[in-house]
């Protein structure tokens, strides 16, 4: 679920402007999972553009407090959301930790890095939601450390049905700054893509694991 429509449209436009999101229906990308995809999203680019990273920070900060209430701690999912998570924590005047998908294999074998007390409430920052599996591993790690999860806030989601079901099963409320639907609407309106390309992108989103050009 998006925080609000205005933020979703503005965020989508900014991500397209800096090529954090690339749309290429005619020459698809190959994800690490092996899926073919007409879209590629790298939200780490946001950190290289001060005005945009500040916008994302501010939208997260005000909408997190409005939607979840002020938590005790902000947690970023490693590694993509560490930077923006720190900015949000600083803006909200809160402690920050980051969480790995699984514990380290050496040293103290931490999964959660930073100071976190049992019973503290946490809002998790994520950069991108695809299936939600890796994000929910971070949730499990925080719960295992005794955290009370108020919810997760992400920059962008592809809006896959499997992700919606995974978050529902985990009983985690997910809110995002933008999503696939608002991205496509904006991309057509601003002529980043044609209506024919929009149709291809919508077909992919229905069944990304089996889609091919």
Concise description?
The protein has 213 residues and is α/β, with parallel strands linked by helices. The protein has a single domain, classed as Rossmann fold, CATH 3.40.50. It has seven helices and ten strands.
Architecture overview:
Homodimer. This is Orotate phosphoribosyltransferase. Keywords: Glycosyltransferase, Magnesium, Pyrimidine biosynthesis, Transferase. Pathway: Pyrimidine metabolism; UMP biosynthesis via de novo pathway; UMP from orotate: step 1/2. It comes from Flavobacterium aquariorum. This protein has 213 residues and is an alpha/beta fold. The protein has one domain: Rossmann fold. It contains 7 helices and 10 strands. The strands form 3 sheets. Strands 7-6-5-8-9-10 form a 6-stranded mixed beta sheet, sandwiched between helices. A two-stranded antiparallel ribbon has the order 1-4. Strands 2-3 form a two-stranded antiparallel sheet. Strand 5 (73-77), helix 3 (82-92) and strand 6 form a beta-alpha-beta unit. Helix 1 packs across helix 6 and helix 2 packs across helix 3 (82-92). The radius of gyration is 17 Å and the shape is globular. The protein starts with a helix and ends in a 7-residue tail after the last helix. The model has no long low-confidence stretch (mean pLDDT 94).
* Strand content bin: 15-25%
Basic shape:
globular
Order of helices and strands: HEEEEHEHEEEHEHEHH
What number of domains? 1
Helix-strand makeup class: alpha/beta
Helix content: 40-55%
The biggest beta sheet, please?
6 strands, mixed
What average pLDDT do the residues reach?
94
Q: What is the radius of gyration computed over CA atoms, rounded to a whole number of angstroms?
A: 17 Å
Low-confidence stretches: none
Put simply, the count of helices is 7
Family: Belongs to the purine/pyrimidine phosphoribosyltransferase family. PyrE subfamily.
Pathway: Pyrimidine metabolism; UMP biosynthesis via de novo pathway; UMP from orotate: step 1/2
Subunit structure: Homodimer.
Binding site for orotate: 130
């Amino acid at each position: 679920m998006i925080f609000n429509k205005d933020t979703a449209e503005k965020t989508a436009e900014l991500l397209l402007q800096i090529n954090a999101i690339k749309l290429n229906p005619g020459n698809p990308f190959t994800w690490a999972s092996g899926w073919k995809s007409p879209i590629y999203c790298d939200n780490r680019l946001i950190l290289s553009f001060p005005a945009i990273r500040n916008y994302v920070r501010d939208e997260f900060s005000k909408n997190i407090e409005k939607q979840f209430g002020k938590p005790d701690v902000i947690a970023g999912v490693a590694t993509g959301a560490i930077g923006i998570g720190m900015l949000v924590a600083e803006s909200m005047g809160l402690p920050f930790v980051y969480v790995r998908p699984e514990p380290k294999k050496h040293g103290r074998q931490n999964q959660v890095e930073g100071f976190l007390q049992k019973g503290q409430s946490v809002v998790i920052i994520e950069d991108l939601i695809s299936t939600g599996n890796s994000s929910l591993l971070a949730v499990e790690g925080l719960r295992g450390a005794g955290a009370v999860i108020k919810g997760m806030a992400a920059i962008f989601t592809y809006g896959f049905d499997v992700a919606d079901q995974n978050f529902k099963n985990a009983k985690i409320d997910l809110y995002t700054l933008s999503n696939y639907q608002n991205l496509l609407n904006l991309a057509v309106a601003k002529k980043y893509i044609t209506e024919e390309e929009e149709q291809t992108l919508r077909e992919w989103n229905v069944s990304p694991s089996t889609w091919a050009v």
